[in-house]
């Protein structure tokens, strides 16, 4: 920035999903599940789950709500943990998921018991295939969370490629996508199809882009640099407007690849399998929209002005919080 330049007071969010083919779709069981699930009302993670899983029945919607709230518990505790503490938290949580019928020690980190209760509810409707896919993806997520804590402790600065490599797991989107499968039975070899794999990767990356654009303001105010906007500004020596433009162009290229892969997913001769694959890949497209609209409809990033900002796209830059 030139010496005499004035710091911006506002910035404009690109409307990058204006042409996304999947519209907003809310699960009809939202209000009931919101009351029954452990709720963090300001963020309304139950709304996120109900937008993300609009076709799930009441039980599936509730399990989705509990997953979103489990993510919140993990974030809340690991954000203030050191590497050793985060490693213990990850280990006991994974043990709780693998052994849900075992009572947890009273002195143990509360996140393990939250995870155990979530998983016990999930098992009432979960297929064995889903269970395996979910546990595998959640383990990757927890390992990445520990790595993020290590990076924060060591003040390690990511480049753009390194940031994406880690963020694809720390964001929790892969286990969230797996939850689409909770009552489905899609074989491993089908899930590993190159086009379905490309859809999963593309969906994760689009959600990272949208989330980090929407969360940038509150994160920069508390000097949190684990955000794509901050990484791009630092890595490419761009100002905020330039970084948002660069990320918007990146997003467009990811969307192009996503839609191409979507059009190339094969049809299967087994009608049941074909329906389930279609449901899964449309579920990913829907999740991208769900994440975007939740960012404005909850109060997590924009307070009570979210719906206004969703229309105007203009955001007032928050001042830095006192150290």
TrEMBL record:
Keywords: Lyase, Magnesium, Metal-binding. The keyword Transcription does not apply. One of its GO terms (molecular function) is terpene synthase activity. It comes from the Eukaryota. Its cofactor is Mg(2+). Pfam families: Terpene_syn_C_2. GO terms for biological process: isoprenoid biosynthetic process. Transmembrane segments: none annotated. It is an enzyme of class 4 (lyase). Its EC number is 4.2.3.-. Signal peptide: none annotated. Belongs to the terpene synthase family. PANTHER family: BETA-PINACENE SYNTHASE-RELATED, TERPENE SYNTHASE. This is Terpene synthase.
């Amino acid at each position: 920035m030139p010496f005499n330049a004035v710091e911006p007071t506002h910035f404009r969010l690109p409307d990058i999903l204006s042409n996304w083919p999947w519209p907003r779709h809310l699960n009809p069981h939202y209000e009931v599940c919101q009351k029954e699930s452990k709720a963090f009302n300001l963020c309304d993670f139950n709304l996120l789950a109900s937008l993300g899983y609009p076709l799930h029945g009441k039980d599936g919607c509730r399990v989705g709500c509990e997953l979103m709230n489990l993510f919140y518990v993990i974030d809340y505790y690991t954000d203030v943990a050191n590497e050793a503490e985060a490693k213990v938290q990850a280990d006991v949580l994974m043990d709780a998921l693998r052994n849900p019928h075992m009572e947890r020690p009273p002195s143990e980190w509360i996140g393990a018991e939250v995870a155990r209760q979530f998983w016990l509810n999930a098992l009432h409707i979960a297929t064995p295939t889903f269970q395996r896919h979910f546990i595998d993806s959640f383990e990757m997520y927890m390992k990445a969370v520990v790595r993020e804590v290590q990076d924060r402790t060591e003040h390690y600065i990511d480049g753009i490629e390194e940031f994406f490599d880690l963020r694809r797991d720390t964001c929790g989107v892969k286990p969230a996508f797996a939850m689409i499968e909770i009552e489905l039975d899609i074989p491993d070899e089908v899930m590993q199809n190159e086009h379905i794999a490309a859809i999963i990767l593309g969906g994760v990356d689009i959600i990272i882009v949208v989330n980090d654009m929407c969360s940038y303001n509150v994160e920069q105010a508390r000097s949190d640099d684990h955000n794509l906007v901050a990484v791009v500004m630092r890595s490419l020596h761009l100002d905020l407007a330039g970084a948002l433009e660069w990320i918007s162009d990146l997003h467009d290229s990811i969307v192009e690849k996503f839609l191409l892969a979507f059009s190339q997913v094969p049809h299967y001769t087994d009608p049941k399998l074909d329906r389930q694959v279609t449901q899964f890949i449309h579920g990913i497209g829907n999740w991208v929209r769900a994440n975007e609209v939740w960012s404005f409809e909850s109060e997590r990033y924009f307070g009570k002005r979210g719906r206004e900002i969703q229309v105007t796209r203009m955001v007032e830059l928050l001042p830095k919080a006192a150290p």
